[in-house]
Specification:
Layout lengths: L3 E15 L10 E3 L1 E5 L2 E2 L8 E3 L13 E3 L4 E5 H11 L13 E4 L12 E3 L5 E7 L4 H10 L7 H5 L5 E7 L1 E4 L3 E7 L7
Length: 192
């Protein structure tokens, strides 16, 4: 019996981005394709099998402890991005400013996909969702540079809509227009 259940949902890749490792910000560069390896995106800011721990896991590890990198990719929903923009009073939100790697359309409530959910392309490329990506000050700074006066509204507007972070389970190429099928763990919801 499979451990993962295919859902009725597929997300269409509407935007792809690469955040250079040597850049001083999280600003992404739009690209037509991404070659995903076990380490994520080659020469990407979040590439690697391991990473130094940060404030997100400070109750588990001292800062800068080497841990498994489950934050190789930042995936957002075009629908949720529209909600963030509306909440900020903007017409639209540029994914470059969010440090996004993949923007998907068609998966409702993407930011709350269960941890361990899989997104799989026709080629077999498979991405494993780690967890919700909470809003932080880095995108707010980029937004403020582009549209002064709006950056401070980002964190509140993005709460519950910031997307997910993920890691590469099976390498492959992603291209704009690809469709990713959503698989979720076939288990009951934890309710102690």
């Amino acid at each position: 019996m499979p451990v993962f259940r295919e859902t009725e949902y597929q997300g269409e890749v509407t935007w792809l981005g690469h955040v250079p490792a040597d850049g001083g910000s999280i600003r992404a560069q739009g690209v037509d394709t991404l070659d995903l390896t076990f380490e994520g995106i080659a020469a990407g800011r979040h590439a690697g099998l391991v990473r130094p721990s940060c404030s997100r896991v400070k109750n588990l590890h001292p800062r800068d402890t080497t841990i498994r990198n489950t934050r190789q990719l930042s995936i957002l929903s075009s629908e949720e991005m529209a909600g963030i923009a509306a909440g900020m009073g903007l017409q639209a939100l540029d994914p470059r400013l969010l440090g996004a790697n993949i923007i998907l359309s068609g998966i409702p409530d993407l930011s709350h996909m269960p941890p361990s959910a899989r997104l799989q392309g026709a080629s077999g490329v498979t991405i494993t969702v780690d967890m919700e990506n909470r809003p932080c000050q880095f995108p707010a700074r980029e937004i403020e540079q582009e549209t002064p006066g709006y950056g401070k509204a980002f964190k509140a507007a993005a709460a519950g809509r910031r997307g997910v972070v993920a890691w590469v389970e099976r390498p492959g190429r992603l291209a704009i227009g690809d469709r990713l099928r959503l698989f979720v763990p076939d288990q009951p919801v934890w309710a102690p």
